[in-house]
Structures are given as structure tokens and as C-alpha cells.
UniProtKB/TrEMBL annotation:
Highest rank taxon of the organism: Eukaryota
Keywords from the named record: Disulfide bond, Glycoprotein, Signal
Alphabetized InterPro entries for the sequence: Peptidase_S1_PA, Peptidase_S1_PA_chymotrypsin, Peptidase_S1A, PPAF-2-like_Clip, Ser/Thr_Proteases_Immune/Dev, Trypsin_dom, TRYPSIN_HIS
A single MF term (Gene Ontology): serine-type endopeptidase activity
Protein name: Phenoloxidase-activating factor 2
Family matches, as Pfam families: CLIP_1 (PF18322), Trypsin (PF00089)
PROSITE patterns linked to this entry: TRYPSIN_DOM, TRYPSIN_HIS
Amino acid sequence: MIFILFLCTLIVTISARPQESNSYIKTSSNNVLVDTASKNCSYYANKDYKCVPYYGCEDGEIVTDGSDIINIRSLLSAELDPASSKCPGTPRSYVPQCGKRNYGGIGVRIQYEQYKGSTQFGEWPHMCAVLEHQETPYDQSINVYQCGGSLIAPGVILTAAHCVQNLKSLNIKVRCGEWDTQQEVEPRKHQDIFIEDVMIHPLYDPKNLHNDFALLFTEKDFELSTHIDTICLPDNLDGIYSYEQEDCIATGWGKDRFGNHGEYQVILKQVEMNMVNSTECEKRLRRTRLGKSFKLDESFVCAGGEKNKDTCNGDGGSPLKGNPGVYANVADGICFIHWATRCKTELQNYFQISGCENWVHDETQALRYQNERFQRKLDVISRDESETASSKKNILKKNCKE
């Protein structure tokens, strides 16, 4: 009740000031105070902009939900600076950006020690969960978690082949925008969409997990938003070596330990790991149950090796994101989780997406991108909008045995 009274008082206080100066009006569409008297503001109005108090504009958009305005009473006497207070006439719709990370999350934040290693809501918009839809004897249905996946286009999810090879495609469902798997009360709703087609890499080998890739094509597109968006695919032949080798981040809802005692995570977790070069990785893996004759396939890369800092069962198909060193809030999905000899102790092995990107482009174009509308969706995969998908599709052949 105290909060409601304070908020009502704030609204009354703000609305009273413009009536005295006659330099503002309150728009009916979004209840925003707009200056119509200033000469400069009149000029901007002709360009589809509106002048609002500086605290009513954030990142070029009008604040309509009260964010950071509730404690503004002490600033009500500040003068409006038209030159620094331009906002679009109406709040803009969401503009997709692949690989975006929402630092600090969206709308809610957890800080308790028991959630150490957990993500914040909406922090990784490309992260999705692959589910199997099962019917129960009592005419009820359940969704059983299988593994993670990454949204690479509004209607395409990239995951691991071993995750879906034994599932019927009509029973596979993908959930994007999920965070806390046990709660429905989240700032924004997740989206569940059934799969229409499953394409497993033709050279996938279930014995050694080479080419462990699968593309899931949904019945309809996901509606992109701040908490649901695509991941970027690599755009050069150098793959992982074009990115920083430290502080890569893996995400997933997988188990916290190996074996029957491990528990799947309720809240999406994240783990920072450093990359390990192939020579050192192979040497260390030969000291495990793989034996002295083990040879690390050139398509695999290694990360981790620090105790209690790794991924585990159920994290298959989830992305390991590298830092491109250019965009502070952008990460690239350069490889995907596959296998480890043990959890909590050993190196984790991942498959480089850069080597088989041409297969991804070929299959998406063949199955779903036959017209202009779908071609535009394929272009979302690339961060460089000047380079079309058709010009890229046959560039990368490294590591993929044709």
C-alpha cells in the first residue's frame, strides 16, 4: 500500500508542473509528457521526434513503464534540454541483433549465494531448451528436457545430433525465452513451438560424435524480442582462433555432477572457461580412460579443465560462446557442447561450427528458405548485413569431410 500511495503522489506531482508552465502536454497513447512550446522541440516534432524530460528518455526511446522514474521527485525542477532529449514519436518495435547479451538481465535480478553461477532472466536470448512432448496414461502431457540448443534464425535451432537422433520429430518441441524451469511468473513469457523437420548432418557418427550437428525447423517462427533472439555464427575460416581464448561462456540446464546423484538445474546456469590448445588437450585426454592411443579429431576443440568449472549431462547441444573482442555485448556461438570423460574434473570437448557452416546454410536454404521472406531470415544469422547468405553458403569447408 505504501508503494501505491507513493506512485500516485508521484504522478500527481509530475502532472501538476506542466499545467503551471503550459509548455508540456500529456499524450494519451503512452501517458508521456511532451514539450510543444520550445522552438527546437517544434523543429524535432516535424521529424517525428518528441521532446520529453530527460528522465523520460532512455537509449533513444520513450520510457513508458516507469523504469528509473519512481525516485525522480527531487529532479522535477530540472530544466528540459531539447537538444539532449529527443525520442521517437512512439516507442520503437524490437530490432533483432544476433549474439546480444543482456548484462544484468531483464526485469528481475537474483543475487543470492545459492544461485552463484546462474544467469539473469533474458541474459542469453539465443538459449533454448529441446523438449520431448510425451503423453501420459491419464490424458495429460508432459515436456521432458533433452538438451540445449541455439536459435540461429527465427525458425531454426542448432543443437547436437545425439540429442535428437532417437526422437520422433513430431514429438520434439523447442522452448525459447525460458529461464527458471519451475516458475511461470517471469518478466516475459517463453515460447513453445513444435518441430516440423529435423536434419541431422549426413556424416554424423554416433560412435565418436564426429559431425554431431542437427538442425531443427519449427512449425512457425519465434517472435523475436529482448529475451528471445538469435546467436551469431562465425563469419570467417579461422573459426575459434579468431576469437579471444579466455573467458568463453557455456550455458545450459544440465546436471551439476556426473551420475545418479547429479541434479538438473532449475535456473539457467553459465560457466566461464578458457580454451585449451589441441596438442595440450590431446595429451591430457590420453591420461583418461580414452587411453594413450586416442587422437583428437581436428573438428573438436577443448575448454575448461578446472575443477568444479564445467558443463555436464544435459548440456549437450548448448553453445559455448566466444568473445570476438569487438562488441562488448555480443558473443558468437563458435562451438557446441558434446562430451567429457567426467564432470567437475576433466576437459570438455566441443565441435567447431565454423568448419560446417556451409552445411548449415545449404540445408536451411534447401528446406525453408526458397522465397524472399525466408531469405531475409537467413541473413539474420550473419552479423555483417552487407554480406548475403547466398554469397557465404559455400565459403566454409574446413573440417567438414565432403
